[in-house]
Design brief:
One of its GO terms (molecular function) is DNA ligase (ATP) activity. Helices cover about 30% and strands about 20% of the residues. It is an alpha/beta fold. It has helices at about 1-5, 90-100, 180-200, 230-240, 250-255, 260-285, 310-320, 350-360, and strands spanning about 10-15, 30-35, 45-55, 65-75, 80-85, 105, 115-120, 125-130, 135-140, 145, 155-160, 160-165, 300, 320-325, 335, 345-350. The protein is globular and about 55 Å long. Among the domains are: about 1-40, Dna Ligase, domain 1; about 45-190, OB fold (Dihydrolipoamide Acetyltransferase, E2P) (Beta Barrel), CATH 2.40.50; about 300-360, 3-Layer(aba) Sandwich (Rossmann fold).
Length: about 375
Amino acid sequence: MINRVIREGLEGLVLKDVKGTYEPGKRHWLKVKKDYLNEGAMADTADLVVLGAFYGQGSKGGMMSIFLMGCYDPDSQKWCTVTKCAGGHDDATLARLQKELVMVKISKDPSKIPSWLKINKIYYPDFIVPDPKKAAVWEITGAEFSRSEAHTADGISIRFPRCTRIRDDKDWKSATNLPQLKELYQLSKDKADFAVVAGDEASPTTGGSSGENEGTAGSAGPCKGPPSKSSASAKTTEQKLNSPSSRGGIKPIPKHSPMKPGEKLAVKSSPVKVGMKRKATDETPCLKKVLLDVFTGVRLYLPPSTPDFKRLKRYFVAFDGDLVQEFDMGSATHVLGNREKNTDAQLVSSEWIWACIRKRRLIAPC
């Protein structure tokens, strides 16, 4: 199931008891995301250079708490932006970084953007490093590499980025450059595709999303896989019943053997029907239905107060859209509702999202 979720571009799964209810502040539900699997081995990471910073909001207002991360392009000999990272640092680390990071305050002034930086207007920072070759290198981990035309690293970005390690052992030469970032992006997509194929072939239950097929997981079908525990236990029981040592104590067989012909026919027909159902459910995973990348390159600010917010968010992300938070509203290419904080963004409505999905392509804002 997690392979299907990753393939469809969704964030992850929440595992819960069937009868469990949501209780604020409780931690008895489990969240499963791509970057949680195999102790983080499925997560996408890159060693990026800190190029600038932005003021935070709320409790972090007035201090650098959002950082502009980028990489070096050896062809153009310029630095490119990859993502804005606001997670991964605790309060103590943030306080220390205010003193350790060497920054020049430019207050998003276009005339103060250095010539070595290739950046779009929506990412002009409040602070900039004077020399990127002396800047810090951080390991940035995210749910996956994504496409964002707003960033200048060949449109490659990282979804849900967070700093997982400050790489004091690396400098700008050993950090991830643009050609290496392109390779990581391609490897990430190949790895995701392989995981989905392997998951479908090895586990027939990945085709369903509601858990209805658990009882038929071990049956034969076009997508062959190892037998489930239920089928294995059934075989073991059958062997025990047929073994010479246990024939004297078999009770189920005498109950069925004296049945009338009509009753025998009913007993025989039941497994056949179950077998037919098993075959149908096993064929389902092989129908690989991949969602279209309708919203590729679209960065949308979707206010939480929007009617049907959760459903809109789910479908927009599933069709390869990027949602931005309110503090990052300046990087949005589209805004639903009020665009006072980003006059360059296109104003759209929830009907526009559904219309794009129905027509399977981007249409003019409405």
